Amino acid sequence: MKLKGAYSADTSYSVGDVVTFTDGFVYRLSKPATSGTPPVNTLYWERLGQDLGVAVQLMMDAIDIAKNYADTIAATIPNNISSDAISLMDGDDEFVITVDGSGDTPELVVTAAGGGE
């Protein structure tokens, strides 16, 4: 059984796929059907019982919450850091901070985006 989210007529489903439908119920594809075959067509789809349907709805809600949380976290991750440098802005001026480890003592190197140090 694979949870596929809200039913879409544009999606091809495989036997065993589970969808939620606009009628509030959860359906599982029991026989191969062409795209656009709505879940209410009981020749191809079966409606899950109340207990399993509620469990699926809870899982779908948890997935939606997790996706929203991940998007929120991703928006807070700085995009000015790479594996070898940090880029900082001061007004319109950009500076890149790197580490020069070629000598005995590592040094921080600040370079203006225009190439000057």
Structure commentary:
Helix content is 23%, strand content 30%. It has a four-stranded mixed β-sheet with strand order 1-2-3-4. The chain has one helix and seven strands. The chain is of the alpha+beta class and 117 residues long. It folds into two domains: 2-76, Seminal Fluid Protein  PDC-109 (Domain B) (Ribbon); 78-117, no CATH class.
Full CATH superfamily name of the largest domain: Carbohydrate-binding module superfamily 5/12
Assign the CATH class of the largest domain.
Mainly Beta
How does CATH name the architecture of the largest domain?
Answer: Ribbon
Residue fraction in strands: 25-35%
| Total number of distinct structural domains | 2
Q: Could you name the ranges where pLDDT drops below 50 across 5 or more consecutive residues? A: none
What would you report as the Rg, rounded to the nearest angstrom? 26 Å
The name CATH uses for the topology of the largest domain is: Seminal Fluid Protein  PDC-109 (Domain B)
Total helix count?
1
The major beta sheet can be summarized as: 4 strands, mixed
Kindly summarize this structure in a few lines.
The protein has 117 residues and is an alpha+beta fold. The chain has one helix at 50-76, and strands at 2-6, 17-20, 26-29, 45-47, 86-90, 93-100, 107-112. Helix content is 23%, strand content 30%.
Topology:
Layout (H helix, E strand, L loop, with lengths): L1 E5 L10 E4 L5 E4 L15 E3 L2 H27 L9 E5 L2 E8 L6 E6 L5
Parallel strand pairs: 1-2
Antiparallel strand pairs: 2-3, 3-4, 5-6, 6-7
